[in-house]
Amino acid sequence: MHKLFFCCLVALLPVFKCYTPQTVHPKPDTGKTFTTTHFNILFVPDLSNRVDPDRYKRPLNDVDILSIITSNLYPAILRFKRSEYQKDKLTIDFINKGLISQYKVNTDNLLIDFGRFANQLDRIHYITGNNGVSQTLSKDIYDMTTEFTRMNGLAVKQNVGADIWSYFHQGIDEKRVLAAENPIKYGNNSYVNTYRNLLILLTDGYIEAGIFNQGFDLSKNTINRFRKAFLKSGENNMQQFLEKNKQFQIKPVDNEYLKNLEVLVMETYDRSLSKDGAATVHPTDMEIIKLCWTYWLQQSNIKRFELHPYAASKDEAEKTILNFIGITKVK
Questions:
Q1: How many CA atoms lie within 13 A of 302 on its CB side?
Q2: In terms of domain of life, where is this protein from (predicted)?
């Protein structure tokens, strides 16, 4: 009888492990604090006129770039320095919230949340599609891609300006930037779940919505005025010229959540180049965009950021994204 009880107990141990309190991976009882970091990825396309392929020729469209992220969710992102209890999130967000109703968006399809499961076994079934579950990762990726493709198609025909300054000012809040969760006690140990908040922003670098010529935009007109004034000044250092001439600066954003946000700006586009890619003016639009954006994001206390021109291929875009996140592609 004792042997039977022992065999049953051993058989149930894996089950007990699966139902350990959520996100707790029990370790030796040492009285230490263990921290697990999850990814909170915001995918934010500006849906401005840059998405129109007839106006701006780009090797990739925004749907292609989204597919890079979704194809790397599992296992590359999900298993980075973790084997279970993942709470990663991928959300498609809007710079202009009015587009949600204008495009009749089903926002439920724009979120993939691995933290919603009560136990690891449910999470495994969701990822693998085993055990007859109806909601799976592959289905959610399909639904997200389908909804975003529809949105992107509408944006090509009905695009509006993207008010990026206001998005950083008011759109980045406690729902977008996730704070560390309260510690979970298990024995004498404490377990803390924290997040890396990553914003992947797709924009051409021209900020042409909202209030103009008051520090909330970086329009083509502003760039032209900056170039003309800089060349007329006879100075050689654009950085110093920008710092001395506030009328060309983008006003810093005062938002406490930005200090916990990492921003990858992709797909910046140089309108000052000729059709064959040759510079028509100096400094080019791209040089001015990088200068103004860098100064703006630094002054706004963004935790970390990178600025990249549009990618020449899917492989290049994937390398940019994975390097920014800090993970390696799983082959």
A1: 23
A2: Bacteria
